[in-house]
TrEMBL record:
Alphabetized UniProt keyword annotations: ATP-binding, Nucleotide-binding
GO MF annotation list: ATP binding
Organism: Desulfomicrobium macestii
Similarity annotation: Belongs to the ABC transporter superfamily.
The protein, known as: ABC transport system ATP-binding protein
Gene3D superfamilies: P-loop containing nucleotide triphosphate hydrolases
Matches recorded under InterPro entries: AAA+_ATPase, ABC_transporter-like_ATP-bd, ABC_transpr_LolD-like, P-loop_NTPase
């Protein structure tokens, strides 16, 4: 069913080369897609290129080469041609997409300590130049079990509560894509499962495309609709190549 929905992000023929002194790392992504309502897992060993892929999807790292890189910016409009925006170095166009379409969940929550939880949650909407509906914040907080935390400071929350607030903040301004980098790294297994379940449910209910990067294969393979991993090999003394490929395609 999810296959019929047009991708929110579509990448074909991506190559990203990163070099440091003599060593060169080359990531190849023949095809990557995430659709509205899907949770896509990106899994693999340390150094295989997960963050490189996530930073590319987040439009903060320019591809070295790419055949096609599109983001659906609205239902009634043609997808934005990200490859063309990078090719002409259109920073205004790229930052408008970052601001309008994306929500981010970081490993440690990334909440600003000097703002209340509610102010943290409302920040992305403020940056977009709008206001958040109080009723939306409260109903999401209710669903995530953090309704009692809204008027506290982040320091007064447990790590699990901070991660839930970070998910709420990422989703509250109604992004089309949520990018989550090891969102459960700082919590125990039981909390990690609950957080992943929440993200998956919210993705479906709100038709958001979610990309989760994680080391924890067991955690995501039960939950992700689609999963990608990497075949990494040492090509020569200084060159490492990593191929990103699907390990699960389509809805489970
Ligand atoms: N700034 C950089 N310059 C050059 N090479 C880099 C840079 N950052 C990372 N790399 C190399 O790129 C490769 C992929 O790194 P990346 O951070 O994407 O891996 P990862 O899968 O996210 O790893 P981890 O799970 O440890 O965070 C690694 O071999 C790394 O050494």
């Amino acid at each position: 069913m999810a296959e019929a929905i047009a991708p929110m992000i579509r990448l074909d023929g991506l190559v990203k080369t990163r070099s440091q002194s003599e060593s060169v790392f080359e990531l190849q992504v023949p095809h990557f897609a995430v659709r509205p309502g899907q949770m896509v897992a990106v899994i693999g060993e340390s150094g295989c290129g997960k963050s490189t892929l996530l930073d590319t999807l987040a439009l903060v790292m320019a591809p070295t080469r790419v055949e096609r890189f599109e983001i659906a910016s609205g239902e009634a409009t043609a997808p934005s041609d990200v490859a063309a925006l990078w090719a002409r170095d259109d920073e205004d166009g790229l930052s408008a997409l970052r601001r309008d379409l994306f929500g981010y969940v970081l490993q440690t929550g990334g909440l600003l300590p000097f703002l209340s939880v509610r102010q943290n949650i409302c920040l992305p909407a403020r940056i977009k130049g709008g206001d958040m509906l109080a009723s939306r914040v409260e109903s999401l907080a209710d669903r995530l079990g953090v309704a009692g935390c809204l008027d506290r400071m982040p320091v007064a929350l447990s790590i699990g509560q901070r991660q839930r607030v970070a998910i709420l903040r990422a989703l509250a301004h109604q992004p089309r894509v949520v990018l989550a980098d090891e969102p459960t790294a700082a919590v125990d297994k039981a909390r990690a499962r609950a957080i992943m379940d929440d993200m998956h449910r919210l993705a479906r209910d709100e038709a958001v495309a979610v990309v989760v990067v994680t080391h924890d294969v067991d955690l995501v393979m039960d939950r992700a609709d689609v999963a990608y991993t990497f075949d990494t090999r040492q090509v020569s003394e200084h060159v490492t190549s990593s191929l990103c490929r699907p390990v699960r395609e389509g809805a489970p």
